[in-house]
Specification:
It is found in: Cytoplasm. Residues 18-297 form the Tr-type G domain. GO terms for molecular function: GTP binding; GTPase activity; translation release factor activity, codon nonspecific. This protein is of the alpha+beta class. It folds into three domains: 19-58 and 71-292, Rossmann fold (3-Layer(aba) Sandwich); 299-397, P-loop containing nucleotide triphosphate hydrolases (Rossmann fold, 3-Layer(aba) Sandwich); 409-546, Alpha-Beta Plaits (2-Layer Sandwich). Helix content is 31%, strand content 26%. The protein has 16 helices and 31 strands. The protein is globular and about 80 Å long. The structure holds guanosine-5'-diphosphate. Guanosine-5'-diphosphate is lined by residues 27, 29-35, 57, 150-151, 153-154, 275-278.
């Protein structure tokens, strides 16, 4: 029996959703994310966006002006300039997560709006601190993770060493989709397991095509050979050929087919090798990624799971950004569409405020350029003008009331008392702190007994403090000072205050409460955490994240 979609809308939604891939690239600074992003967007058919990303790079080191940084941060790139502009039928939504000095909780929250993550690793350096942090957030969100080992044109770690690091440190099994042939000056290309072909790298040719950038969309100059090709030995040299044959034998022994269910569950990472700068392995990665990655996912709500093709619209605010245009002091709320069809001007309800809101000035961002968005589907990100109607984590919906779960609060590493330098401005001070907290600019904690004491700001990046102080001064007219606290680790006590009281006097940690009143312990280092858990079992389980 033939199944006929129950309505044209449903068919339309399914087609749109199936063709969307929404992903974030996570990496440590300098691993090559900006470069890779440019290449990916280039294939996605959006050369303009690539330019915008490039412009950002120049600005990245040039300023410590927080407003500039706010502007640079978190551009969202879609591969789509028009509904017809697609790559191989796919619309790519790339959520930018800056991995730089301006690292903040925004970065984490952005990951929660993605469906897939690309973990970019510098093949010479292996896993680095920021990769680790962001990986944890991907895991918390249950995202499928695709690994791209970059800069193979430079002397690199052995591929087995890279896989081993991921397996050991992240407890994440790997599946090498392709395998590098040599590295550094001797880098000859990759063996692609699904097709048993060798993609040859020719530095000279790619350099030339890089010079002609814009014209070369293909892998021009690259040769693709079946692994049994008679000319292969001559092309890559006897030694590398022998090594490759050995490696393939090993891979064949190890490897059954890729278990896609495990990939989608986030419990197996497909691994790729290449060089973003030389545009080598990027298209191969992209094509394979599109086949393996997941379409926009359904989400848990207060009323059961909602699927991406459900007729009812749902979405959630995952990021607020102020002063993108300093002339207007504008504020933008970024909404990730979870289900249904978004249309310009549509009326939705904000589940938190219970108010109806018309989404009248929706835009999509291309680097610094905004374009008005007429419609959107699950997986898309919409920028909404936010005169104060939206807060981080807000659910917007049509139809039956449904609330998406709050975005978890992420483990801060920097703590400071925020002091009001002008006691005459108590009210403004309180208002500013409350509003910046609502915007998710920073986390706020208090001592156990009193809300009257100065708030403790808790952040994952120094920039968050700078933003708070600058905005307190500019927007609320309050000068503030910071008193840094000597802690670097926060742990939420899962057993609540009962567990804290049962534990008795706690050494080497300060006990504070978060905005929900839950107990949080602040430690100098991870060693002190382990020590407390070992010495004081009454404290129970400690978690690096709040569980809202
Ligand atoms: P980001 O900080 O992760 O955004 O990294 P960038 O894309 O800005 O790159 C950092 C540096 O690494 C720059 O100097 C790039 O030119 C360089 N780079 C990026 N990709 C490659 C690559 O594939 N090979 C080599 N040799 N250098 C690269």
């Amino acid at each position: 029996m033939k199944t006929v979609p129950s309505s044209a809308v449903e068919r339309d939604l399914a087609t749109e959703v199936n063709s969307r891939r929404t992903f974030a690239i996570i990496s440590h600074p300098d691993a090559g994310k900006t470069t890779l992003t440019e290449k990916l967007l280039y294939y996605g058919g959006a050369i303009q966006e690539a330019g915008a990303v490039r412009a950002r790079r120049g600005a990245k080191a040039a300023t410590s002006d927080w407003m500039e940084m706010e502007k640079q941060r978190g551009a969202f790139c879609s591969s789509r300039r028009s509904p017809y502009d697609r790559y191989d039928g796919f619309t790519l939504n790339l959520l930018d997560t800056p991995g730089h000095a301006d690292f903040s909780e925004d970065t984490y929250r952005t990951v929660s709006a993605a469906d897939n993550a690309v973990m970019l690793v510098d093949a010479a350096k292996g896993l680095e601190p920021q990769t680790r942090k962001l990986f944890e957030v991907c895991r918390l969100n249950g995202l499928p993770i695709f690994t791209f080992c970059n800069k193979l044109d430079r002397p690199s770690l052995e591929p087995l060493e890279l896989l081993d690091q991921i397996e050991r440190e992240f407890d994440l099994p790997t599946y090498a989709v392709n395998w590098p042939i040599g590295s550094g000056d001797a880098f000859k290309g990759v063996y692609h397991r699904p097709t048993r072909e060798v993609h040859l790298f020719d530095a000279a040719v790619t350099k030339e095509s890089r010079a002609k950038k814009g014209e070369d969309k293909s892998t021009k100059g690259l040769s693709v050979l079946p692994v049994g090709d008679a000319t292969l030995t001559e092309r890559i040299g006897e030694e590398l050929h022998a090594q490759l044959m050995e490696d393939i034998e090993l891979l064949d022994e190890l490897g059954s087919d890729l278990d896609l269910d495990a990939v989608h569950a986030g419990s197996l990472t497909p691994v790729f090798f290449g060089s973003g700068m030389n545009n080598f392995g990027v298209q191969l990665f992209l094509d394979t990624f599109l086949g393996y990655s997941v379409r926009p996912r359904g989400r848990e709500t207060s009323d059961g799971v909602i699927g991406p093709t459900d007729d009812a619209f749902t979405g959630f605010v995952f990021k607020l950004q102020a002063n993108m245009d300093p002339r207007h002091r504008d504020k933008v709320a970024f909404v990730r569409v979870v289900s249904g069809k978004f249309e310009r001007g549509m009326k939705v309800t904000n589940a938190r405020t219970k108010k109806a809101v018309a989404l009248s000035r929706p835009s999509q961002l291309f680097g610094q350029d905004k374009t008005v968005l007429e419609c959107g589907y699950a997986g898309d990100v919409i920028g909404l003008n936010n005169p104060g109607s939206f807060a981080i984590g807000d659910t917007l919906y049509t139809g039956k009331r449904r609330v998406l779960p709050p975005i978890p609060t992420f483990s801060p590493e920097l703590f400071a008392y925020l002091r009001n330098a002008d006691t005459g401005k108590y009210k403004q001070f309180q208002k500013g702190v409350a509003e910046l907290l609502g915007e998710g600019a920073v986390q706020v904690m208090y001592s156990r007994d009193s809300l009257k004491q100065d708030p403790i700001l808790a952040a994952v990046g120094q920039l968050q403090f700078e933003v708070v102080q600058a905005r307190m001064a500019q927007e609320y007219g309050v000068e503030t000072t910071l008193d840094m606290l000597p802690f670097n680790v926060a742990r939420w006590v899962e057993g609540g205050w009962d567990a804290v009281d049962a534990a008795g006097r706690i050494f080497n940690a300060q006990c504070v409460k978060d905005v929900w009143g839950a107990p949080v312990l602040l430690f100098k280092n991870a060693w002190n955490v382990d020590q407390l858990v070992a010495d004081t079992p009454e404290i129970g389980t400690l978690s690096p994240f709040s569980k809202p």
